[in-house]
Amino acid sequence: MSYDLMMFEPQPDVDPEITLNAILDDEVSEEPLPSLSKAESDKRNRQIIEALQGLNPNLEDSHYDSYIEIEDKESTNGIRITLFGATASVSVPYWHKGPAARQVLSEMWDYLDAMHHVAGYLAYDSQLGMIVCRRDDFDAMVDTYAHLVERHY
């Protein structure tokens, strides 16, 4: 089990909540969400990987048919970043307690910030049920993470 965030790109002139709901519901509407070509997606993913590795040179990327997984295989923090075509996810396992929880979530936010800078991604926290930002929501995320660790482990 892990604390999971979904990253998505907001659409111009569209409320991010509408974009998020369309992604979560996997709706097909009369006006589908714009998508990147394979070449554009590959370029953006390379830029994201470079930005993340600029923060942590130990991050390794593994490429699969429909996604790219990025993690620091030398670290025990368990942070995993997965890049999909139009979205990404970032997860942290529920095994960090006390100050270690705050530290690992801070590192996760460094990665989220880099992805936002490169791709314009916003972060949706499924545990809190809302789009989050570091300045306003970090403490609530740490509290929620700590509560879930305490409850399940």
Please, could you describe this protein's structure?
The protein has 153 residues and is α+β, with helices and mostly antiparallel strands. The protein has one domain (2-152): TATA-Binding Protein (2-Layer Sandwich), CATH 3.30.310. The chain is 44% helix and 23% strand. It has four helices and seven strands, in the order βααββββαββα. It has helices at 16-25, 38-55, 99-119, 134-152; strands at 2-8, 59-63, 68-72, 80-83, 87-93, 122-125, 130-132. A seven-stranded antiparallel sheet has the order 2-3-4-5-1-6-7. Helix 2 runs antiparallel to helix 3 and helix 3 packs across helix 4 (134-152). The longest helix is centred in the last third of the chain and has 21 residues, at 99-119.
CATH topology assignment: TATA-Binding Protein
Q: Which class best fits the helix and strand makeup? A: alpha+beta
Ends distance: 10 Å
Principal-axis shape: globular
Q: For the record, what CATH class applies?
A: Alpha Beta
Q: Trace the largest sheet across and list its strands.
A: 2-3-4-5-1-6-7
- Rg value: 16 Å
Spans of at least 5 consecutive residues with low confidence? 27-32
Relative strand content:
15-25%
CATH architecture: 2-Layer Sandwich
Helicity range of the residues?
40-55%
What is the number of E strands? 7
Mean of the pLDDT scores? 90
> Number of domains in the coordinates?
1
Order of helices and strands: EHHEEEEHEEH
Largest sheet: 7 strands, antiparallel
